[in-house]
Structures are given as structure tokens and as C-alpha cells.
From TrEMBL:
Keyword Acyltransferase: yes
Statement: the UniProt record of this protein carries the keyword Nucleotide-binding: no
InterPro entries: Carn_acyl_trans, CAT-like_dom_sf, Cho/carn_acyl_trans, Cho/carn_acyl_trans_2
Name of the protein in question: Choline/carnitine acyltransferase domain-containing protein
Active site location: 437
Annotated Pfam families: Carn_acyltransf (PF00755)
């Protein structure tokens, strides 16, 4: 085991399951069936026909005298295995198309859903690789046009007047009678030719075609746990980065991590995880592009106005170091003093600008061969690490917000917003992340972060007194190559003109946090209600009390139940939610009626 492991006898494979391409039970079942057929001599005529053809072709290589019962038996096993595998694949694909369970309330599960759940659990039991169920995920079908229009009108009813609704109804009828069917037909044809008829357009037009700054507008942040294993910054980030690379190797490369399932039952599409590492959003005129560097083996570290490149894995994704060695490396970076040609000043602020402006500035930057080489290192890295010099205290609301702002936008001049994600470490060991949004949805990076923190807790041990990583490794560090730059003045002058815009965007952001501790999701579940539904109704009630009107509300819905799915939109402001809000604000309404209204929403 690598240095820094908490327990030398810890069986890592106990934490992981090995990949299994085909359920082994099918091989066993095929063998048993073939034996029964052989004993009772009840072989189907189709089997005999196939066997004769197979034996005829292999007779060119094996003498007929060598044919025996073993060869015939092996052919029978193979044919049965192929037949069972085909049935298994078709059955699992068919079962995963059932979505009726989504619309059933808590405690009101139908018999059909129960039978479906048992069948699905049996078919997906056993050891499976991380991406095993990708090819079984159903395609997302285009919904019926008339039903889509009907649901759209229902979502708009609480937001507009009766006159406006009547006009909207006429427009909808006209759409259905004119171009609607033709457009829907074109969409259906597109769904036949792609794995997902939404995802490519979603990425291209929602994200990559947007010309706004990524900072605040698109990129998002996440914070680590309040309790941390060490307050020594370089030790913490070393253990955390090692755990990230360990998870990447186990899950994305080797497929040893159990597949992600919704409610521990329904497999989710794993495709978004592929681009979690080595991806960069490269600016372009009119539209950006996502560049995935699958062969990337290095990370990039930002500290003290310099950028360092560290080779951390080999071509197979195996770590080239122990956590302790990486700790030494970060220590050396912290203690280094870059020279003038190694400092980038506020170059990263370019990624805070509008995409067209950054594309133009980047073109100027890359015109110098040395700068182009250094820029390529930054953009092709697996991910970025930012060593912050300021502490964080997430236990206090004000300090938590301050650290959140450092992770969301920083100074506007220090974070490289084009990268898939950046790990931000405070001077006292707290971890945060800034994540570019176009390559995947928030649930993906949240899942990765949770598993990485578990790995760090299990496999990396820190000394209670010094906070350093415990290990018997020799004191050696990895090579950290500081990136060099030629005459950045022209590029920085272009960025300088835009710095006031960046400052204004940051100052216009209002960010706060609310710690609600009266009750949590487990209490809500005891009410036989959905925690998310309670939150959405709270939003609707609060918004109406502030604005005295209902507002069109967007809530992201998981679409990874389908192959290559991203997200869909839930319009949580409905006629039912509007009725709930009005009932809650009615002084003549008693608690019993309010509770009844609440349950009706769920």
C-alpha cells in the first residue's frame, strides 16, 4: 500500500467491486442447461443445425476423428450463453424503460412498481463496473406534442391574467395547427439518429454559445466538510489530491467503483464522469469548444503569481507518488520564490471576461511560442490546484460566506475559470472547488467529491500533533516545473482595461447562507412528504410574500436515467402550488387544512 495509508491491513478491494462484463450466473446457467439437454437428449433442431455447421467449418482445422462429446457440449454451452445473454440484455433494457415509479407518492407504491423493483434488483445484482450499465440506459423519447403544450399552458396559468392566458391558448392552438407537427417530426427524426436528442443542443446553445463571463454567471462552487483532518494546508491538499487521483483510477479508468444508482436501484448514465478530468472550455469567436485531454498526466498548481506543472500519473492513470511525496512537493512550492519571467500577474483574469474578449486576448497570448506552450500545459491539466494564503472558518456564517466567495469568484484575477474544476485550499486546510459547468451537471462533481473525501478519511492519516501526513517514505518530492512566459505586457494591458468590469460583477453579487437546524430531511420523510417538495413550497411562499405575485420558477431535474442525459426543467410554480400559498396566507384557514394542502402537492 502507498505511504500514508491509515491501516496497513486494510483491504482496498473490500471498498471496491471488480468489473464484470457479463453476469457469471449466465455462464453457470448455460452449463447446467447444456448438461440437462445432453443427459435427456432433447436437443432442439435449431441447435443440431448450428452444431453441424460449426463442426463442418472447424473440420478444416481439426480432424473429424477428434470430434467428441466435449466439443459438442462446448458448442451447446456457447449457444445457450449467447441466447441467455441476449435475453438478459433485452429484458434489462425493457425494464429500465418503466418510469411509472416516479409519479407514485411515498407510501403509495403500486403492485406493478413493486414487481418491477424486485425484477430490476435481481437483474442488476452482483458485481458491476462503474460504466457497466451505460449501454442499458434507455433512450429519451420525444414527448407527445399536444401533451407538451397542455402542460406548458398549465404551468403558465398561475403567472398571467385570464385575458393573457386566453391569448396564449390561441397562440398554442395556432402552433399545433401550423408548424408544430413538422418541428416535432424533425425532432423525432433527430432522436432516431442520436443517443440523446437534447444533450448536444443543450451543451452547444445553453453553455458553449453563451458569450457571458463564466465567473458567477456559469461556474459554480462547492465547499468541503466543516470538520477537517488537518489544518496544515499543504498536507491537506496533498492527501486530497492523492485521493482524487485514486478515485479517478478506480472509477473512470479501471471501473472498480460500483455504478451510481438512484435510490440504490435505478442505474444512472455514467457518461458525464468521463470528462471530469483533463477537460477545458476553450474560448472561441461566437462559440466555445470543450477540449477533452484523455491522455493528460499532470496537474497545475497556482501559487504566489506563478504556475507549476506536476506529473502525477502515468499513461495508465497509476499514481507516481505517495501522499507524503506530494506533501513535500507542495511544501517546496510554498517556499519557492518565482522570478519575473515565471510570474503571470493577473493573467487568469482573462478567463473572467466575456468569452469573445477572452478569445481575442488568448489569441494574442498564444502568438508567442513560449506562452503557447505554457498555456497548453494549463489547459490540458487533469485539474487545477490553488494554494490560498488566507484562512477559512466555515463554522461561522460570515466566514463561510467569505470562503464561498473566494471559491466562486476569488479576486476575479486568480482563478482559471476555463478548467473543468479547481481545488482551492485555504491556509488552514479547508477545501473548496470552482467548477466549470458545461462538461457536466452539479450532481456529478458532488458525487466525486463525496467519494474522494471518504477515500481521504480511510487511506490518508495525519499526525495529531504536527498535522503532517504519517508515512515511512523517504523525504523526496515530485518535480514541479514552473511555467515560463515571454513579455506578457501586451496581453496584460488588454486585460487591464476590463478589470473594472470584473470588479463591478463581483460587487453586484449578493451571497449569503442560511443554516436551518429546526428539522431536516429525515423529519420530513416521517411526514411522508418529499424534502425537495417542502423546500420548493417554502420558496413559493416566501417569494409571494416578498413580491405579492407568483414568478416563473426553474428547478433542475435529473435526466441521467436516460442515455447521455443531462438535466430537464421542473416548473415548480403550478396552479397547485399557488393554491397552497394562498391557503397558507389565508387567516381563515386552519392548520388541518394547510396540512392537507401540503400533502396534496406531493
Amino acid at each position: 500500500m502507498d505511504g500514508g495509508s491509515k491501516n496497513p491491513v486494510l483491504d482496498l478491494e473490500a471498498l471496491r467491486v471488480s468489473i464484470s462484463r457479463t453476469p457469471s450466473v449466465l455462464v453457470i446457467l448455460s452449463t447446467i442447461t447444456a448438461y440437462i439437454v445432453k443427459v435427456f437428449d432433447k436437443k432442439p433442431a435449431s441447435f443440431e443445425l448450428v452444431e453441424k455447421n460449426v463442426l463442418f467449418y472447424i473440420s478444416e482445422y481439426i480432424s473429424p476423428e477428434s470430434f467428441g462429446e466435449s466439443i459438442e457440449f462446448s458448442i451447446s454451452v456457447l449457444l445457450l450463453w449467447l441466447a441467455y445473454s441476449l435475453c438478459y440484455n433485452l429484458l434489462l433494457r425493457w425494464i429500465l424503460t418503466y418510469k411509472g415509479w416516479i409519479f407514485e407518492g411515498r407510501g403509495n407504491t403500486s403492485l406493478l412498481t413493486r414487481v418491477w423493483a424486485v425484477s430490476l434488483r435481481l437483474l442488476t445484482a452482483g458485481k458491476r463496473g462503474f460504466s457497466y450499465f451505460y449501454h442499458f440506459c434507455p433512450h429519451m423519447h420525444v414527448p407527445e406534442l399536444q401533451n407538451t403544450i397542455r402542460r406548458y399552458l398549465l404551468s403558465m396559468k398561475p403567472l398571467i391574467t385570464e385575458k393573457e392566458f386566453a391569448e396564449l391558448k390561441l397562440m398554442s392552438d395556432d402552433f399545433l395547427a401550423s408548424v408544430g407537427p413538422a418541428l416535432n417530426s424533425a425532432l423525432i427524426k433527430k432522436s432516431w439518429l442520436t443517443t440523446n436528442y437534447v444533450t448536444d443542443w443543450w451543451e452547444e446553445y445553453v453553455y458553449l454559445s453563451s458569450r457571458d463571463s463564466l465567473m458567477i454567471n456559469s461556474n459554480y462552487f462547492g465547499l468541503g466538510t466543516e470538520r477537517i483532518p488537518t489544518s496544515r494546508a499543504t498536507s491537506r491538499v496533498a492527501g486530497y489530491v492523492w485521493s482524487i487521483l485514486k478515485w479517478r483510477k478506480d472509477a473512470v479508468i479501471d471501473g472498480k467503483v460500483p455504478p451510481m444508482k438512484l435510490q440504490k436501484l435505478v442505474p444512472l448514465c455514467p457518461m458525464q464522469y468521463k470528462r471530469a478530468f483533463g477537460t477545458n472550455r476553450t474560448p472561441g469567436k461566437d462559440k466555445d469548444s470543450l477540449v477533452y485531454n484523455e491522455q493528460s498526466t499532470h496537474i497545475v498548481v497556482f501559487h504566489n503569481s506563478a504556475v507549476y506543472s506536476i506529473e502525477v500519473v502515468d499513461k495508465n492513470g497509476d499514481s507516481l507518488f505517495s501522499p507524503k511525496q506530494l506533501e513535500y512537493t507542495f511544501d517546496s512550492i510554498k517556499e519557492s520564490e518565482p522570478v519575473a519571467c515565471e510570474k503571470i500577474s493577473h493573467l487568469a483574469a482573462g478567463t473572467s471576461l466575456s468569452r469573445d474578449k477572452w478569445a481575442s486576448i488568448r489569441e494574442t497570448l498564444a502568438s508567442d511560442p513560449q506562452n503557447e506552450e505554457s498555456l497548453a500545459k494549463i489547459e490540458s491539466a487533469l485539474f487545477h490546484v490553488w494554494l490560498d494564503n488566507a484562512p477559512a472558518n466555515v463554522a461561522k456564517p460570515a466566514s463561510m460566506v467569505e470562503f464561498a466567495r473566494r471559491c466562486l469568484h476569488g479576486t476575479g484575477q486568480n482563478l482559471w475559470f476555463d478548467k473543468c474544476f479547481s481545488v482551492i485550499t485555504s491556509s488552514n486546510g479547508h477545501i473548496g472547488q470552482n467548477v466549470e459547468h458545461s462538461w457536466a451537471d452539479g450532481a456529478v462533481i458532488m458525487h466525486i467529491t463525496e467519494e474522494v473525501q471518504v477515500l481521504e478519511h480511510l487511506l490518508v492519516e495525519y499526525a495529531p500533533d504536527t498535522g503532517k501526513i504519517l508515512s515511512n517514505d523517504a523525504q523526496s518530492s515530485l518535480k514541479a516545473d514552473v511555467l515560463k512566459w515571454n513579455s506578457l505586457e501586451k496581453t496584460l494591458v488588454q486585460i487591464d482595461k476590463e478589470l473594472p468590469t470584473i470588479t463591478d460583477e463581483i460587487s453586484n453579487l449578493s451571497l449569503s447562507q442560511l443554516c436551518f437546524s429546526k428539522f431536516g430531511k429525515n423529519t420530513i420523510k416521517k411526514w411522508r412528504l418529499s424534502p425537495d417538495a417542502i423546500c420548493q413550497m417554502a420558496f413559493q411562499l416566501t417569494n409571494f410574500k416578498i413580491r405579492n405575485k407568483f414568478s416563473m420558477t426553474y428547478e433542475a431535474a435529473l435526466a441521467r436515467l436516460f442515455k447521455d442525459g443531462r438535466t430537464e426543467t421542473i416548473r415548480s410554480c403550478t396552479t397547485a402550488s399557488a393554491a397552497f400559498v394562498k391557503e397558507m396566507l389565508d387567516s381563515n384557514s386552519d392548520n388541518r387544512c394547510q396540512n392537507k394542502k401540503s400533502k396534496k402537492k406531493n
